[in-house]
Amino acid sequence: MTLAESDLLQRGGLALDVDGARATITLSRPDSLNAQTPDTWAALAAIGESLGDDVRVVVVRGAGRAFSAGLDRSLFTPAPGRPGIAALGTMPPDEADLTIAGYQAGFSWLRDPARVTIAAVQGHAIGGGFQLALACDLRVVADDVQFCMAEPALGIVPDLGGTHPLVRAVGYARAVEICLTGRRVGAEESVRIGLALRSVPPAELDAAADELATALVGAPREAAAETLRLLAGVADGLDPAAALAAERAAQVRRLRSLAAGTG
């Protein structure tokens, strides 16, 4: 990261640690339950742009007793030099659309098949916190986790990319119920309905994420990336014939690359 980007990380309340094939992103505003701001999303986007090709797995975690309580509530109250989220409603539609697209960029790179992403989630994962966890390929949760899509209850909608992975994980009907009731989804239910792979005691969460991250980098990089693309295509509704064609094309690319000695 450049010095400017490091300053952006500090403003966004994030810490980044890169150790070989693994990067760990920590939401580091525990006093505010890791509440998010536009600076958080800009810093996340900068991390996505800066990670080298050698990074195979990314773990996203929250410091303290919560993963993220979602949007910093101060953004609902305009102040001098801080127009707040409501200002989007007074912008020309194209400008507002572009602004929100910029926010989404902080989350969308986490689904790039170039690497596997894991959310290690404890405590509250509300609104934007829930959507950040959903942006990752996999979720491991602590027994005290509380997922909640709070936006509709506030008169707005989830707009950080959370709707697609939520439906993909739990199905349309369950996603409707979770979003429109605003209820909390705990650890046992999260595992049962497919939101999370497993739940562990809070003290074991980091170790569980470490174990999973280590296991996921066993396959060669390009084979893993091609497999992720295939699986994502099926999850997104690719029909069986198209999935078979995608498998053939991916395998040809892999075999040609191996035959050429390029990995």
Automatic annotation (TrEMBL):
<dbReference type="InterPro" id="IPR018376">
    <property type="entry name" value="Enoyl-CoA_hyd/isom_CS"/>
</dbReference>
<keyword id="KW-0443">Lipid metabolism</keyword>
<dbReference type="Pfam" id="PF00378">
    <property type="entry name" value="ECH_1"/>
</dbReference>
<dbReference type="GO" id="GO:0006635">
    <property type="term" value="P:fatty acid beta-oxidation"/>
</dbReference>
<dbReference type="GO" id="GO:0016829">
    <property type="term" value="F:lyase activity"/>
</dbReference>
<comment type="similarity">
    <text>Belongs to the enoyl-CoA hydratase/isomerase family.</text>
</comment>
<dbReference type="InterPro" id="IPR029045">
    <property type="entry name" value="ClpP/crotonase-like_dom_sf"/>
</dbReference>
<protein>
    <submittedName>
        <fullName>Enoyl-CoA hydratase</fullName>
    </submittedName>
</protein>
<dbReference type="InterPro" id="IPR001753">
    <property type="entry name" value="Enoyl-CoA_hydra/iso"/>
</dbReference>
<keyword id="KW-0456">Lyase</keyword>
